[in-house]
Amino acid sequence: MAETVRIHEVGPRDGLQNEPGVISVARKVALIDLLSRSGLRDIEVGSFVSPKWVPQMADTDQVLAQLTPVAGVRYAVLVPNMRGWEGYLAARRLHFLPDIAVFISASEGFSQNNLNCSVSESVARLRPVVAAAAEAGVAVRGYVSCVTDCPFDGPTAPEQVADAVALLRQVAPMPISLGDTIGKGTPDRVGAMLEAVLAVVPAAELAGHFHDTGGQALANIDVSLDLGLRAFDSAVGGLGGCPYAPGAPGNVATEAVLELLDQRGFETGVDPAVIAQAAEMAKGMR
Ligand code: HMG
Ligand code: MG
Q: Looking at the annotation, which residues are catalytic?
């Protein structure tokens, strides 16, 4: 039997947060509802972050209220601090319990520019969020950004990533997504980073989150598969871009990842025909 790989669709969050235009709640919900019928089991749909920092996600409460949850699909939102957790609590409906994701950076420069605080301060801010989520029975995923390069500090040492992962896992034993935030990673450097992280966390607890800025995302997924990773984040239609590289591609496209996995003999349970339809819809949002 073919081995399974899990795809976390992040287009409605990581993709749309980087699109310059205003996209209505109705269009976001239409995209999420279509993705929900594709066989995907994980869809990240928004963020409870400051609307001054990321205006595109300011309507996440309405998106959660209006999407049609499909059984077997887990929906997730980013929550950086207790203010975000309060937003999450106010927005969620009782019959529908989205997961949350917390996020830190492996580099100080990105932490300051993305979260307005140091890495250790960001961990202190998310600690009560993770405790509240545990109390409420809400599943938590962790992100570590800048796993190969930081737009402010330059290359990230593999040990720095392993340290950041360990820091998050000291808060609680959560699965971790490793973000090549600016898509500068190459297979060699991703491989070295993964070797360091795998000394701290087993592959089954990790996901690869590759942006395709440098056109290396599929090659980076390839090497991650070789090292045992079986979960990847992607954005339908390659939604999004990179604030540090105007005009560059966004997250690796879900349809391209499906094709690679199919070629390598992995199963995902995701219907490429529905994803192709969603990719068309997503491209209309660019
Ligand atoms: P801050 O300014 O330091 O926060 O921002 P603060 O606590 O000093 O509060 C300032 C104001 O923001 C206050 O409002 C707060 O109420 C409000 P005011 O009194 O001025 O009217 N505020 C909030 N409002 C809504 N929701 C909240 C919230 N928190 C405070 N949660 C903060 C700190 C974290 C809020 C800010 O830095 C922020 O929102 N950053 C956004 C970060 C973000 O969403 N980045 C993109 C996602 S991460 C990513 O894309 C990487 C990833 O894809 C993986 C990869 O690729 O590497 C995951
Ligand atoms: Mg990202």
A: 242
- How do residues 75-125 score in pLDDT, each as one tens digit? 999 999 999 999 999 998 657 889 999 999 999 999 999 999 999 999 999
For ligand 1, whether the C-beta of 105 sits within 6 Å is no
Sign of torsion, CA 285 79 154 200? negative
pLDDT in tens, 123-162: 999 999 999 999 999 999 999 999 999 999 999 999 999 9
Q: Is the CB of 87 under 6 A from ligand 1?
A: yes
Sign for the CA dihedral angle at 66, 87, 77, 239 comes to: positive
Q: Is the CB of 209 under 6 A from ligand 1?
A: yes
Mutation test of ligand 1: which of 50, 79, 86, 103 has the most ligand atoms closer than 8 Å to its C-beta? Answer: 50
- Where are the chain's structural domains? 6-283
Q: Which CATH superfamily is domain 6-283 in?
A: Aldolase class I (3.20.20.70)
Residue corresponding to tokens 């992995």: 266
The whole-model pTM stands at 0.97
Whether residue 40 has pLDDT greater than 90? yes
Question: Which tokens is 38 given?
Answer: 């594709």
